[in-house]
Design a protein that fits this description.
The protein is α/β, with parallel strands linked by helices and 223 residues long. The protein contains eleven helices and eight strands. It has an eight-stranded parallel β-barrel, surrounded by eight helices. Strand 7, helix 9 and strand 8 form a beta-alpha-beta unit. The longest helix has 27 residues. The chain is elongated and about 85 Å long. Bound molecules: erythose-4-phosphate. The site of erythose-4-phosphate has 12 residues, from helix 7.
């Protein structure tokens, strides 16, 4: 399963890229609002850091507006994917951008039917929101699993992004449920790295090494 970073914070993206685990990036207006500045500049910078798909989300809710924004984003870099929310107009915009060879990520997916429609319209990525479903006492992972089964059964090429990931367990569950990609906040990526026994083990190894080195140095000095 590929890992995308779900952020508009360029520094976080640089760090994940240095770790060698970054396959792409998703942004949205709320993530952009946390960092501010020029959205175009951020997206351009992110596309220099990763050659993987970078989702830039349109704001318009009419088809022509979505097309204008989507075509503009597509000029920024070849790895841009235009993110469009599920709606009747969104489906039309996805279909027309697909005809123009522009890749799209259909966002705010909460049911397998919405995911199926997005893929049929031509979205190359579909993003079910796991965490927001869990928030309202529905099992978000069921959408990932069922959509995965539908795509496999009917040989649909679109990839499923498990989005709205809240904690590391969601990542494991998404991988097991067949998501092609999980897009994770930087904090979750950091949580995935750590385990108390790993961190404790590193401290102990350093301690033991230091003790052994001191003992060896003392022995050499006596010789
Ligand atoms: C990703 O594409 C989504 O925009 C994101 O995962 C939403 O996450 P949230 O529910 O934590 O806002």
């Amino acid at each position: 399963m590929k890992l995308f970073l779900d952020t508009a914070d360029v520094e976080e993206i640089r760090i994940a890229a240095r770790w060698g685990v970054l396959d792409g990036v998703t942004t949205n207006p709320s993530l952009y609002a946390k960092v501010g500045g020029s959205y175009d500049d951020i997206i351009r910078e992110v596309c220099k850091i990763t050659s993987g798909p970078v989702s830039a989300e349109v704001i318009a809710d009419d088809v022509e507006g979505m097309l204008v924004e989507g075509r503009h984003f597509a000029t920024i870099a070849p790895n841009i994917v235009v993110k469009i929310a599920m709606s009747e107009n969104g489906l039309e915009a996805i279909s027309r951008l697909a005809d123009e060879g522009i890749k799209t990520n259909c966002t705010l997916i909460f049911t397998p039917n919405q995911g199926l429609l997005a893929a049929k319209a031509g979205a190359s990525l579909v993003s079910p929101f796991v965490g927001r479903l869990d928030d309202i006492n529905q099992d978000g992972m069921i959408v990932i699993r069922e959509l995965g089964e539908i795509f496999a059964l009917h040989e649909i090429d679109a990839e499923i992004i498990a989005a709205s990931i809240r904690h590391p367990l969601h990542v494991t569950q998404s991988a097991l449920a067949g998501a092609h990609i999980a897009t994770v906040p930087f904090k979750v990526l950091q949580q995935m790295v750590h385990h108390p026994l790993t961190d404790k083990g590193i401290v102990q190894f350093k301690k033991d090494w230091a003790a052994a080195s001191t003992a060896a140095a003392a022995k050499n000095a006596q010789a």
